[in-house]
Amino acid sequence: MRTTTRSGVRPLGASDLAEFLALTDRDPTVNVFAAHRARQTRLEPRLLGGEVWGRFVEGELVSACHVGANLVPVEAGPEDTAVFAERLLGRGRTVSTVVGPEQAVRSLWSHLEAPWGPPRETRWCQPHLVASGPPLVEPDPLVRPSRAEDFAALYPACVAMYTEELGVSPELGGAADGYRARVRQLIQFGWSFARYEAGRVVFKAEVAFATPTNAQVQGVWVTPERRGEGLAVGGMAAVVALVRSRISPVVSLYVNDWNQPARRAYDRVGFEQTATFSTVMY
């Protein structure tokens, strides 16, 4: 039976799924992570590995917050983030990353920074880019979906990308088995795309989250000795074409503002900025 809340915050469950997805549909590209997780888990805490909190005003779901390893605000303004922060401070920090639209993350963080202490890193300006049509340049014909037999070549490239991007290895603290399972899962889903040469990955990218209308790409990487050759431009054009034909019609990603080579590549492919994300990492 559905638990009713006229006003206030409570964990959402399966009976709230339709209302929550309607909330994410207010900006389906920005909210693709939350919508993907909801569709995947039906908002069951056991499957989420955490909870999704909803804020209700006069019986209407007005905002939400994914609370797991990732803390992700959904359609949350300053009043919403203040309420979510108050609830978060009542339980202590359990998240490793705060990520989402810049204003919502900054607002959350204004309440959490002092009690939670200094993070490992903050990235406040991450342009959120969207490609909703065919790529503007010719796709690299050698970029293809990864297959199970590619795992031995793909896995070291995934570890290298993660370590370079986040400054820590995904295998740290005994997490290698879980990360290996994730890479295998992406291959199984058909969400891993790469250019293989002589048994090595020279370009790769993955779909991290997807709904029937939107897909978010992460893990874009070119092997260091081949950078500057234009592999990212043709590779991302291929990824856009493959994702739009196989998974979802709208492709998005977010990039660090200081990564000018990547931003130039995405611009040539046809990505356009629609928002700005921020990430706080512990």
UniProtKB/TrEMBL annotation:
Among the GO molecular function terms of this UniProt record, one is:
acyltransferase activity, transferring groups other than amino-acyl groups
InterPro entries, per this entry?
Answer: Acyl_CoA_acyltransferase (IPR016181), DUF4081 (IPR025289), GNAT_dom (IPR000182), UCP21603_acetyltransf (IPR016794)
Q: Where is the N-acetyltransferase domain?
A: 141-282
Entries under Pfam families matching the protein: Acetyltransf_1, DUF4081
Task: Give the domain of life.
Answer: Bacteria
Annotated SUPFAM superfamilies: Acyl-CoA N-acyltransferases (Nat) (SSF55729)
Name under which the protein is recorded: GNAT family N-acetyltransferase
What species is given as this protein's source? Nocardioides agariphilus
